[in-house]
Amino acid sequence: GRIGKHRKHPGGRGNAGGLHHHRINFDKYHPGYFGKLGMRNYHLRRNSKWCPILNLDKLWTLVSEQTRLKYKDHPEGKAPVIDIVKAGYYKLLGKGRIPKQPVIVKAKFFSKTAERKIKAVGGACVLCA
């Protein structure tokens, strides 16, 4: 149209001038946008109780069926290593049964029952930080 010209950014771009020439708008519609509040916590420990769990009956779902069968009756008695931390779990709980086949499990925490059941089938529990 013929009314006005588009003169680029006369008020500045974005939120420019919130403390200066656009102050009325910011005070009216966005109170509390500027300024600080409270104290900064330098060593904030986010949820330290976060500990995803895995039950023993789901342990073998982390490795393929071929791996399980490959180690089933291994002549040297080798066992597969299952690292549940890589799968996103921290603690292994002892619900359910596992096949009578040795397995090496790496985790941050084990429950007593899980440790007992793994050792009963000839496996080992490895703690990793």
Descriptive report:
The chain has about 130 residues and is of the alpha/beta class. It has a domain at about 55-125: Ribosomal Protein L15, Chain: K, domain 2, CATH 3.100.10.10. Helices cover about 20% and strands about 15% of the residues. It contains 3 helices and 6 strands. It has helices at about 25-30, 65-70, 110-120, and strands at about 55, 80-85, 90-95, 105, 110, 125. The strands form 2 sheets. It has a 3-stranded parallel beta sheet. The model has no long low-confidence stretch (mean pLDDT about 95).
Taken as a percent bin, the fraction of beta residues is 5-15%
**Total number of helices:** 3
Task: Please write the CATH class name of the domain at 53-127.
Answer: Alpha Beta
Radius of gyration: 30 Å
- Uncertain stretches of 5 or more adjacent residues: none
User: Could you estimate the helical fraction of the residues in percent?
Assistant: 10-25%
CATH architecture of the domain at 53-127: Ribosomal Protein L15, Chain: K, domain 2
Give the overall silhouette: elongated
CATH topology annotation of the domain at 53-127: Ribosomal Protein L15, Chain: K, domain 2
Largest sheet: 3 strands, parallel
Measure the end-to-end span.
Answer: 69 Å
Per DSSP E runs of 2 or more residues, the count of β-strands stands at 6
Mean pLDDT: 94
Neighbour order of strands in the largest sheet: 1-3-5
From N to C, what is the helix and strand string? HEHEEEEHE
GO molecular function, one term: structural constituent of ribosome
Domain Large ribosomal subunit protein uL15/eL18: 54-126
Family: Belongs to the universal ribosomal protein uL15 family.
Pfam families: Ribosomal_L27A
